[in-house]
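Quick one:
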Amino acid sequence: MRPEHSHESTVLICGVRFGRSGPVVFAHSQMIEPPPRLGDELVIDLGGALRRGRVVVAPDQVILSELAVLGAHVVRRAS
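Output:
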């Protein structure tokens, strides 16, 4: 019997907020090891513009994503 959710095709995404009350942007985070956790500060590429933000939705909190296209991806952890 095959499991309903295969980890082979899982795309890790996380929700990042810029500033205290900005909108949450969802970004690809599969290039970061270990996966980002709540409160981590990351550098995000938003279509060529690099921005620093804080993780407010960790990848393990995302159960299902129906987002067709994500325009952002995690570049690295902020130092």
